[in-house]
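ok so heres the complex, two chains, lmk if somethin looks off
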Amino acid sequence: MTAVPFVRPARSRRASLPPEEPLIPQRGRGGSGGYWLYLIPGLVLLTAVIVIPLVWNVYLTFTEYRGIRPPVWIGLENWVELFQDAKFWTSFINSVWMIVAMVVVPTLIGLLLAAFLFDIIGTKFGGRTASFLRASYYLPQILPAAIAGIVIGWILRPEDGALNEILTNIGLGNLAHNWLGSPDTALASIMVVLVWIQIGYPVVIFMAALQRVDPELYEAAELDGANWWQRFRAITVPSIRPEVYVVTLTCTIAALKVFGPVYVLTRGGPGTSTIVPAYYAYSEFFQAQQVGYGATIATALTVVIAIVAVFFIRAQNASERKERAGL
Amino acid sequence: MVAPAVLTDTTTAPAPVRRPRANTRKRPGGVDWLVLAFAIVAAILIVAPFYLIVVNSFKSPADYSNSGPLSLPTSFYTDGLVAFWNRVNFPEKVWNSFFIAGMTAVLAVLISVLNAFAIGIGRVKGRTWIVLLFLLANLLPQEALLYPLYFMAKAVGLYNNVWSVIIIFTVIQAAFGTYLLSAVYGTFPKEVLEAAAMDGASRWQILWRVIFPISRPTLSVLLIFFFIWTWNEFLIPLTFLVSNSTQTVPVAISVLQGDRLMDVTTTSASALLGLIPTLLFFLIFQRTLTRGITAGAVK
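and the predicted structre for the whole thing:
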């Protein structure tokens, strides 16, 4: 197993080569030396745009920097402040809610919808119906996140938004509410936006994964008297476990980075009820002019994302090993 | 938009939803109808916001408050749409977005091919670590690069210039492309490469005359994804493109949201203008996209 996460190397149909030999046969003994030339543009750009800014950003966490005069070294003061900063902890708790909205809920509902579409609707009502429904679920995925925020923000407008208008029209006017403007519902409203955006992604991925499953399996299980739920547990879920890993990993990282919808809908407010680390860092950089502190928040977020990625990749490798041992 | 599943194998055609063989198609029972109803209700809920935006973009504010958001417009009213179109100078914003996304997609595919050639075909030493480095570059939160990049862009005079955004996204997208293409090129049919080498082609020729044409389907999927991802980006364009003449569609539309002059149907029209371009891409690229999204994440 290579260290490359979430890709199982395709079983190659090639005659095996020593691992360090290039695929193009060598004339003379060049080894793989000449290939380095091809990496130069990519690595130079990567250094300039990613590596240097990242290191610089870490340096800024140890400084007091207002963006005008040069940074002043203050040691660990920003980090001490960060750990005592209630707003920072609130932003991370909100990140957990973002993970619920972008990973937990869409994955569970997506699993159910994909199984329904594949195993019931596709077989009983035809493939076209299933394809059409799948495309409808996927629709919000194509929007820029900021525009998706604007669409739902428009529906939730306080005085004349569509949702409040509809509630008033069906006689539930007392339920009309300033959804994004009151601390008790703002976070839930943002979560609804994210669920709406995300739902189609797992459905599409899981349905594609289910194409690998042999229909004979389902038929055999049915003949043995397994009901739908048992088939779902015994065949559907285990067959698409690798995809579940890919979806949870990519979506968890995306959830930790959420910025667009929060910026467009609430700017982290009211108060700090919808603040997330990405927006908090942004506002420290460009509104509070506390660049050193903003860099500290961004670095903390980077560390959390790295931990999440490593954790997932290890869990996935462990489960693959278990699977192989079990076979 | 989240990254698609990883393509590790380019030979899988998009699998359509499997048609059951006619003889196994059973008559739907009561529970099946219930499941269908559930799936349809879910679809209606998900598509409803699109319906609301389209319907209300063509209403006058008075029409909206009289007949509510659900009804069709009583007259075809385009003042809101026209007013917003002129206010943001929409064609200019579309061109900015298009130029940034298009340039980025082409450059990022080019860099990905060069990197993947060295890693996947050339198998340079330490390639596992190089791939990991690129992958990490793609996973990083952009906030962790934002201020230094902002500072650098100002220093070299690229602040508020579309090229700053193009360069940054070229690197971020190429990082993902390198990761993915290296895996694809690592399983490239060796016989083809040997035959080309026997005919005396140099590495450079083999790359552009053999590998590039053969991997074109994968590259076109990457190109489309890079284009759409870059089009949809928000944080970096918001930070770097501050004047009206350089802004992208999502930034220009979001900047005007809190505006006092925006009545309810004009705001709806602004959202409509924001979603139309992506809907068009979706329709144009749908086949390639579904192939890209559904090509097995794991073989």
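quick notes: Chain A touches chain B through 132 residues (CB under 8 Å). thats all i got rn
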